[in-house]
Amino acid sequence: MKRRKSLLLLMVVFLILAACGGNEGASKDKSESESTGVNVNTTGMPIVDEQIDMTIFANKPAQNEDNDWNDILIWNHYRDLTNINADWNLHHPDALEEKRNLALGSGELPDAFYLSQLTNADLLKYGGQGTFLPLNDLIDEYAPNLTELMENDPSIRKAITFPDGNIYSMPSLIEEDFLSLRLSARPWINEDWLEELDMDIPETTGEFYEYLKAVKELDPAGDGKTIPYGGTDIIELVQWLSGSFGVMNHGPSNTNIDLDPADPSKVRFYATTDEYKQLLEFIHMLYDESLIEQNIFSIEWGQFLANAADNLYASMIFYDPIELFGEEVGSQYNSVAALEGPEGFKDYNKLSSSIWETSSFVITSENENPEAAVRWMDYFYSDEGAKLYYMGVEGESYEEKDGESVYMDHILNPEGDMTFEQALAKQLTWLGSISGIIKADFFQGGETAPQSMEAAEKIEAFVPEEIWPRFTFTEDENKVLESTGADVDKYVEEMRDKFISGDVDLSEWDNYVETIEQMGGLDELLGVYQGAFERYQEN
């Protein structure tokens, strides 16, 4: 099969409840739009009885480059289902920011922005100006599917409610229990080499270190080619081991910020803590002893994939090995969960929030039928809507086999040189454009492969109870983040790599901490996050 499915998610560079209003045959209550007098059916399909148009500004990822969303299976079917004709104004990712800013600056607005990478700062700015509509009441009345999801997972409402109390967008979500996707790249270890060394899967940082040393000495790849640990970026290793050293305890979304263990009502800047220093000392030891790939700070993905295909890695943090490297190489790997660190910490904090993106769908002041637009988007938070978005139309793109929805053969095994991705993109648009809610039952990326799902089950016991989404900030707070915050974060990242590589000795730690304090505004930066955290709790 031409199915390198896990690569599909990497290019996004990584959804569930029964529909409250998505049944086509349901009875229809009507609501009249105040703007145009168009009758909007509050339940069932179609959404409106007479067809209306809705212009939508959208990002068109490279994976969808060869298709026209204005004439493609999924959107043609949804137009016929809803009586809403989406008039897609599509933009290549390279030109997206420029075109988006031009539309916002010129006042020539679409009815909606869709997956257009609007930041939280953009939402607050243009929402405050009236360019983007507040959606609180509209969601309450016309989005039963999203509302039910927010009731079941309050962090969703918290993540999309801004300091002024308004909601300006409908988000892209990951089913909360779809842990395999939320984990993204996860740790793997070569179990064949473990057995050759008569060692068990490591459960502590000390055992992991001993395995890396032993496999380097054994050199199963031969000629000194064995790489004890490899990856595409050092940050993957740092984030995985953060839970072994007691930092990043609520996930990675708020850079260098977690909950203060000494006072759970406070946030802390963990990048100057003793625990963080211990983490860097451990990873530096691995790097200094050549147990980490020495060019990990600059390695290209192509080189990493070639090394993996040549079976050079004893351990790695990456996506599903069988899906990416094939059965012969990939089946050697088993997953690793959280490692217990020297102080007894054993958490798996390298986990994304279930809120993938806050700004999936934004309705502008030009939209004459915002009620219909909210209903249009809300369908994709339902079971039926998620199935349509990720699987398409039964008999056209998928079929039911043994109780499962599977893509049809013309997608799984396309003719000629066409790839799985190319065949899929002829009928669906989810490649690189995750929308609505991603649900494991309907998502066909490598994260649903057996090896990945088993890894997620193993890790689940070590996941913190709460993973924070990116907080929302006021206009003044955003100014602090864009100045002091950006400078501090950049310095922390640079010094992290230098401490690990040995370019700067860890004996300079006190100077590093002092430099951060002297950069000015660290207390102000913490105050910004503290205020955002308190609002997040109150939402």
Automatic annotation (TrEMBL):
Query: Which stretches of sequence are listed as region Disordered?
Result: 23-42
In terms of PANTHER family, this protein maps to: ARABINOSE-BINDING PROTEIN-RELATED, DIACETYLCHITOBIOSE BINDING PROTEIN DASA
Q: Which domain of life is it from?
A: Bacteria
Q: What is this protein called?
A: Carbohydrate ABC transporter substrate-binding protein (CUT1 family)
Species source reads Pseudogracilibacillus auburnensis
Gene3D superfamilies tied to this protein = Periplasmic binding protein-like II (3.40.190.10)
Q: Where is the signal peptide?
A: 1-21
Q: Does the keyword Transcription apply?
A: no
> What keyword terms does UniProt attach to this protein?
Signal
